[in-house]
Amino acid sequence: MNGIEGKVVAITGASSGIGEATARVLAAGGAHVVIGARRMDRLQNLGDEITAAGGSVRSRRLDVTECADVEAFARYAQQQFGRLDVIVNNAGIMPLSPLAELKVDEWDRMVDVNIKGVLYGIAAALPLMNAQGDGQIINLSSIGGHSVSPTAAVYCATKFAVGAISDGLRQETDRIRVTVISPGTTTSELADTITNARAREAMKAWRAITISAEAVANAIAYAISQPADVDVSEIIIRPTASPH
Fold it and tell me: What are the C-alpha distances in Å from 175 to residues 3, 47, 133?
């Protein structure tokens, strides 16, 4: 795929869903992919499959809530392939619940993964990319970063934050491309983190119409494949039949 071949791309949350699909799509396009997540067994299986298909891949255990861990992940990508062209800050969780239930631990976890994880990815990649003189930071938001719904107040707040952080970074640099990808309902394990029974049932109905994780991966590939002077600032991608 023109514009992707040979690029070094680090992907967080790559053990399933959009992260896994992105690794497959980009590796098939000739990128060197570096995949990170906590579940090393899944990363290993994914790496083996990409290698068997002729792709270039490295894997490393990663906890995006640990700043030093994310920095080590980015430097690992650079050490393995000589540079870091793109980081895809994809890791995210979505334990929905009404605010009145006061699931503060879940709120904290969403802030730690969905906001701090993105900030840590930026902090890890930006110095390397500035030293190179170019690069691209891709942050995964959501349609929840454009509108709010019941039980999703904190989740949506984290995704609104991703959009704000991304646009602020975009305005602060004229060398680093910054892209926000906002998927609608997508086939993934994201809803598995919901512990509230009512929210879990509501999400089943909400997710009756979905797009594939590969569809989102293709949108990410499109943003990466553009010329260096073209910044695809934001993509909203959702099912054609989705009202939201």
Answer: 17, 31, 6
CA 155 to chain centre: 15
Query: Strand 176-183 relative to strand 135-140: parallel, antiparallel, unpaired?
Result: parallel
86 backbone dihedrals φ, ψ, rounded to 5°: -145, 140
Which whole-number Å values give the CA distances from 84 to 31, 32, 157, in the listed order?
A: 11, 10, 30
Show Cβ contacts of residue 24 under 8 Å, excluding neighbours closer than 6 positions: 46, 49, 50, 55, 214, 217
Give the 3-state secondary structure of residue 141.
Answer: coil
CB 211 within 8 A of CB 237: yes
Other Cβ atoms less than 10 A from the Cβ of 240: the count is 7
Q: Contact, 135 vs 114, CB < 8 A?
A: no
56-114 pLDDT, tens digit per residue, is 999 999 999 999 999 999 999 999 999 999 999 999 999 999 999 999 999 999 999 99
The set of catalytic residues is 155
Q: How many residues does the chain have?
A: 244
pTM over 0.85: yes
In the beta sheet, which residues pair with residue 182?
Answer: 236
Closest CA to 145 of 134, 127, 159: 159
Contact 93, 110 (CB under 8 A): yes
